[in-house]
Design goal:
8-stranded mixed sheet; 2 domains; 13 strands; alpha/beta; 299 residues; Rossmann fold
């Protein structure tokens, strides 16, 4: 793509996104068709070669700076020799970043339930010559077993374990309760990245024992109140559950690339503001970091 076309795409995105046009039913197919005509099947991002999903759902061939603030933070937080989990790995962008940071003495366990995304994840691990990644084709949930994954035909990063108005086909996938996952038994866990489209509550409940035995763990996760509610969870309860376990919570502000901690004594006010900004009448999401009792602060 020429740099001129790239600038045009960026301009269109900047105009349409605040208006919510990308979500409008009558224009979404046209908009996605236009973007798809400009996309490629591969991209180079952060020094990695990536095979992309059929729609390039993350727009990586158009905007390789996708979540660059978050990626740079992960590079600071993840250290050589760490054991980390990527829950909801998609095609592996964060898996690759974390695998590079932990080095040959560390290990990344990468969980992705969608067969097509898992195939691309494996291809991307091989294409970049990484040998310190354990791939797990499964969703992480409250119980081990099987569930239905409802696929979004336009966005492979938005498959969910519950149906939505955008769901298309569905597939049966394995679910894993991390507390029962044998490869992690007795393994110190340093860092968890989690992005599972509203199913974070189920995943957290299934790893409560793991969190208790790893008081220094840090959890970097998407906080999307609307998605949590659609999955049957209470966003407030998710935050309180973590705080009752003495996790310190930090809000990542992508707009000004800042990190703000919930100050002791202002938890209720902070949570109220967070739920108002990203609450019931909003489809917006943000990212949070939960730091265990002996975990390092992110600054």
């Amino acid at each position: 793509m020429t740099s001129g076309t790239f600038r045009i795409v960026q301009l269109i995105r900047s105009v349409l996104r605040p208006l919510g046009v990308e979500r409008a039913k009558f224009i979404r197919p046209l908009y996605h068709r236009f973007k798809k005509s400009l996309k490629h099947s591969t991209a180079e991002v952060d020094g990695f070669f990536l095979h992309l999903d059929r729609n390039d759902s993350l727009d990586l061939s158009l905007t390789p700076d996708y979540e660059v603030f978050e990626r740079n933070l992960v590079k600071r937080w993840v250290r050589e020799g760490d054991t980390v989990l990527d829950i909801g790995a998609h095609i592996g962008l964060f898996t690759l970043v974390m695998a590079r940071e932990v080095g040959p003495k560390g290990r990344v366990f990468s969980f992705e339930p969608c067969p097509e995304s898992h195939h691309l994840l494996a291809e991307n691990i091989r294409a970049n010559g990484l040998s310190n990644v354990t791939l797990v084709e499964a969703a992480v949930g409250e119980e081990s077993g099987w569930t239905t994954l409802f696929l979004n035909p336009l966005n492979s990063g938005d498959h969910r374990t519950h149906p939505t108005s955008q769901s298309g086909e569905s597939v049966r996938v394995e679910t894993i309760r991390l507390d029962d996952f044998e490869p992690l038994k007795g393994v110190p866990i340093d860092f968890i990245k989690m992005d599972v489209q509203g199913s974070e509550w189920e995943a957290l409940k299934g790893m409560s024992g793991l969190l208790e035995t790893n008081p220094g763990v840090r959890i970097f996760f998407e906080f999307w109140p609307s998605g949590l509610r659609e999955a049957g969870a209470d966003p407030l309860e998710v935050l309180l559950w973590l705080m009752r376990r003495d996790f310190r919570l930090f809000h990542l502000h992508e707009e000004d690339e800042s990190i703000r901690r919930i100050q002791d004594g202002d938890e209720e006010g902070w949570i109220e503001r967070l739920l108002t900004e990203f609450g019931a009448h909003s489809q917006r999401h943000t990212n949070l970091l939960a730091v265990g009792t002996s975990g390092r602060d992110p600054f």
